[in-house]
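Model it.
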Amino acid sequence: MTSERPIWSGLTPEEHEFQYNPQRAFPDFAAARARREPVNAAARERLARIDDVAYGDHPLRRLDIYPAAEAGAPVHIFLHGGYWRAQDKANYAFVAGTLVPHGVTTVIANYELCPASTLDGVVASAIAGFDWVCRNIAGHGGDPARITLSGHSAGAHLGAAIVAHAWPQPAAVGLVGALLTSGIYDPAPAIGTSVNAELKLDAAIAARHDVERRAPVLNPAIALQVGGREPWQWVDQTFRYYSHLRRHGREPSLAVLPGYDHFDILDEYLDAGSATVRTILDHCAISREFRR
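Modeled.
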């Protein structure tokens, strides 16, 4: 029996690039980050921060911790996007700027990047960073039984990889909530984009990290969201991952946020009343006992 052809198989090279390279779909992508930069700089200036905590030997296995004022605070981990080959934790302090005043210890993580590392190393480093937080965040005032995460774009894929990782004792992992935004959950279509000059993906490594086909192991509350202005085939990845989770007995939420593209959807983190921040705070309120 032959497998169903992927939906991108009939696209022209130009159409494929538009659908699966967000920078091509939104060539003004840098403007959104520039608008957030003053807020980001203010958060880095005013918040207490433990910089560049190492969770491994690789120079990008580093994270920043923004502790909440009170001990025993819920913990939120943010995994940035950049198509597995770009960006830095210093550009995402605005996430902590919103969450820390609400009593949430916030961790902004770096991870290995292509092409210096393969996607194997990228995924392994994100999992290692999450594991480090689980084992060590109590020493920084966080509650290891109330860990949430969010990720954008490639960071959403890494969040899904954490959910699907073969943890030795899944019930002991304190992940109670995951918010995954505008994710690429199957790396295969990236092979056909110009970005692959840096990613160096082939069919085998893409298949290893296709979280649309890996059963979830952890059971946090999962919320999926995507921008309403994003190209349809990019949006479809979120719908497919939603269906995948449902087939495995999960009950994720799914929201298409109208008016947002792939890059300005991160502006949601600036507004404490936004759907994004409300979801994270709701996840932070879930007790470990409840999730069992």
